[in-house]
Amino acid sequence: MKKIIMLAVLAALPLVAQAEEKAGDKEKAKAKSARQEVAVEKDAKSLLAPSTGTGDCTLTETANINVNFNSIEKDVSVAGELMEGKIKEVSAIAKDLSLDKFDVQSMNYSLYPYNPGAAGSTQQWQISGNLSFTVLPATKGKDMLVLLSKKGYQPSLNVNAYRSGNCQ
Fold first, then answer.
1. Which residues contact 125 (CB under 8 A, 6 or more apart)?
2. 6 is in which domain, residue-wise?
């Protein structure tokens, strides 16, 4: 009787192993599906279209914001100070939003003589400037845009994204 039970157990081992292997494949499939659901959920919160990939795929987005401003000044020497003041003001707005990243990428300004047209008037200067910076998370880029507009700036938002990983 012991021999029959032992033979039955030995005969059943390959079947048990196959069943465990199939269960493992199902678990792997479930895990992959869960990763895809997380990727889709993340994409739903992003500023761009959702992923159509089927693998482990990561979406990385950055928001680049450009801010333009103009000013008429009586003293040409205030151009640098004006630029520093604009950077500080924009940085304070970014701090209020608790951004993960705020990096000024570039800044520039141009000076033009400005004549209001009245005879004997004092020479004035038009200062036109631009700040360009990167904001993370990109989803807060729109919030930054709104706050900058309320402060009188003329901002624009550009969102860049790339996918990395197994994006089949």
1. 72, 73, 74, 75, 76, 79, 111, 112, 113, 114
2. 1-45
φ, ψ dihedrals at 68, nearest 5°? -110, 150
pLDDT digits (tens, 9 = 90+) for 99-125: 888 899 999 989 888 877 767 778 888
Same domain assignment for residues 90 and 135? yes
For 54-67, write each residue's pLDDT tens digit: 567 788 888 999 99
**Signed CA dihedral, 109, 113, 117, 123: sign only:** positive
3-class SS of residue 36: helix
Same domain, residue pair 80 and 26: no
Strands 154-165 and 101-114: unpaired
Q: Model's pTM, two decimal places?
A: 0.59
> Do 99 and 38 share a domain, yes or no?
no
DSSP H or E stretch at residue 70? strand 57-73
SS3 content of the chain, % helix, strand, coil (to 5): 45, 35, 20
Looking at the fold, whether 138 and 101 belong to one and the same domain comes out as yes
For 163, the token pair is: 């996918």
What distance in Å separates the CA atoms of residue 87 and residue 145, rounded to the nearest whole number? 15
Contact 132, 65 (CB under 8 A): yes
- Residue 50 forms part of a structural domain: no
